[in-house]
Design a protein that fits this description.
It is a single chain. The protein is of the alpha+beta class. It has a domain of about 190 residues: T-fold (Roll). The chain contains 9 helices and 16 strands. The strands form 5 sheets. The chain has an 8-stranded antiparallel sheet. The chain has a two-stranded antiparallel sheet with strand order 3-4. The protein is globular and about 60 Å long. The chain binds adenosine-5'-diphosphate (ADP) and magnesium ion. Adenosine-5'-diphosphate binds next to helix 7, strand 9 and helix 8.
Length: about 375
Amino acid sequence: MANCCRFWTASVLGVALLLVASRVFSQELNAPKRYEFSEEKMGVPTRLLFYASSDEKATVAAQAVWERFDELNSILSDWDPESEIIQACRAIESSGERVAVSDDLRRALLESRKYCELTRGAFDSTVSPIVKLWRRSRYFHERPPAKMLDAAKERVGLNVWNLDDDGLWAEKGVRFDVGGVAKGIALDEALRILNDHEITSALIDASGDLRIGDPPPDKDGWIVGVSSLGDEPAFYCELSNVGVATSGDANRYVEIDGVRYSHIIDPRTGEPLTSRCVATVLAPTATTADALASALCVLGPREAPEAFDEIRRQGVGNGELSPFDYILIEVADNPSGGEPDVETLASPRFCELFDAARKERTEALGTERRQ
Ligand code: ADP
Ligand code: MG
């Protein structure tokens, strides 16, 4: 009897162990796996990184995201002559009447208008006629003729267009370039679609502009390097549920008579930025981050503090007060020919991270030199 009891206990234990083992095994089988998909979208290399429970779920979700990117591009592109945004301007011009627009175009235009108001014109999607003149300059390596620049400036601003329930209206010659928010809108849409497919641990990367969802399983966040003017990121941070955008003239500029003209234009003057700058903004959505990163470069270290304080006070998302972080590094040529002036402007948290990283680098350099 005693032996039988021992055997019974042993077999119960055995079954229990087997059960535990099979549960751990099946949990491992069902544990979300990391997936990565890459394609060229909206003219830039784009990556989807996320955790999903099966290959099939991952592939279906990624396909849905790519299709949405293509759809948004066919609406918002200012390179594709067939895009809705270009066709809408043509239709207004030929009929002289208001035209109906899709929900996506409405959203892009309203977002653009909002950031134009918030940044007091530093961000303005009607900058297109000026952008086009300066794009031409890239080929001819000369400044646009002053008369053409003056005419283009007349077609920029908040009072040359409006949008109501009946549609869009714009003055003759007005053109939109919503490139400054389009990537952000697409990134926010990408995360929404992944969420609809029950994928929440995700990072979507459109060539450095990011939309980040929940952290990877068992992690506090995704590790992201914040750009600096050099090759190395200025510092790293662990992020989740945030939009990140970096703006700058690292590759997109033209040099005319020794002056470096950026692809970012100050819509208020019609002039491209001429100092080297890089700005990174963290905001509740990628759309906000995208617009504010460009605006930060335009405003520069002198105008940005007041403007960004005001934006922080007003809030950026649906009227809510939303916190955001930013850093702007600007290098201006020294008129007396010495070392260039480097100015850094950052929100308190980024200031701390930047200073800590600089201290670490200085110490490392010191150790290297002593060796
Ligand atoms: P970056 O990442 O350097 O900001 P983006 O691709 O986000 O570059 O934005 C560049 C787009 O914004 C281009 O389409 C450009 O024509 C447009 N743009 C340039 N200057 C401004 C501005 N001040 N306001 C709004 N859009 C701008
Ligand atoms: Mg941008």
